[in-house]
Amino acid sequence: MAKKSGKSVDSVAASFAGLSAQRVQQGKGSVQPADVGVVTGIPLPSLVMRYFFRSTVFPLSKIVQLTGQEGSCKSAFLYEIMRWHYMANGGAALAQNENKDSPELRRSILKYNPEWASKFFKEDTTSLEEWQEFLIRTLSSTKEIYEDSKTAGAVWPLILGVDSITATGTAAELENIHSDGFASRGFAVMANLISRFMRAMPGQLRNYPFTVVGTNHLKPGTDAMGRPKDDIPGGKSVKFMETYEIKMVRIKDIDKANYGGITVQFTLQKNSLGPSRFSVKADLLWWRAPGPNGKPRQETAWDWETASIELLLAFESCKGKKGLYRRLQEVCDIHVISKTTRKAWSNVLGVPKDSPTTFRQLGRLLETRQDILVQLYEILGIEVRTVWDQRIPYSEFMSAESDKQRAALLVNLQQFRDDPASFSAADFPDMLEGDGGDD
User: Which residues partner with 42 through β-bridges?
Assistant: First the structure.
């Protein structure tokens, strides 16, 4: 017969507390006593992107990979993520690794903001080693700036972009091509170097408000059974270290009298912080308009507001989502006048039936209604996360949020010990009823 343990719950908990304290005394600053981890970041500027990431914030200290075939607007989305960081008073650094920089596209997406432009720097890299060295050097220099600042800590985020990860070969490969006059197979060497480099990146980002975003080319192919598959060069290492992998596909071109554009489908192939393989669509639009000096210039913008309204309406025709659609309509009450012209009305949003407006304007009105958004987050399964208060250095803020989690845990622990039945786990959803019984 097995011997029963004489340890009480309290003594086991005390043992774990002592283990954590011992590790801290040994200089292990990354030790987390109890399960009090937190995710924080900068605001996401639209409902459709909050639904896509299933989060109200864009988390920091993470690695993101953007994949797609040529012409799928990967660079344009990289610049958009830069815009989110600038909106949070951040900065951006870019390793341009394809020798096809598009400054007009970038500046227009960044609204020609001179303050943002002053907090941007770019390096044209010509080999795998160069963009890797660029990242490490920029990370190290920025950490020094954070610590040398008057606040003695990081109070603004930095995004580091690589466009693209596998656009150039290794330095040795390029030297051999120059000397031999021709290329030889070098994929295994590239994948190995990327793999070794990526294993070092998580430690560089931890406890700092950095975001690393790399674009990569997607090569469609087939597997041994003839089924379609996507091949991404550079090996599997980035996939293991990334928090998000976003696949971008060009759906159609937009060609109007006053503007042009592209409709892009975003699919979250990997989401380490929530559900994966969800898709949304949005338009990237461009047009010509007079600048401050009166001269025409390129304007470019992602139409997230229209995409948000189309997202809410799309559930009506989704199999198994009729009940969800009704719940959304009870909250936002959107009535479409014309899908072609994208016009609708909503009494809830203050747009009467006799004066409908564009989806874009409805989306803008929706973003001003926090009371409605909170209800939509609950229905759509969007995690409400804490926005980083940049008056507090990032590492201190993360520590303070962990302390809040710890305090809440202690309260829950006492309640659990007083009444264990009150903490019973939720049962599985009823799979027989479906979503409102419509399908």
Answer: 58
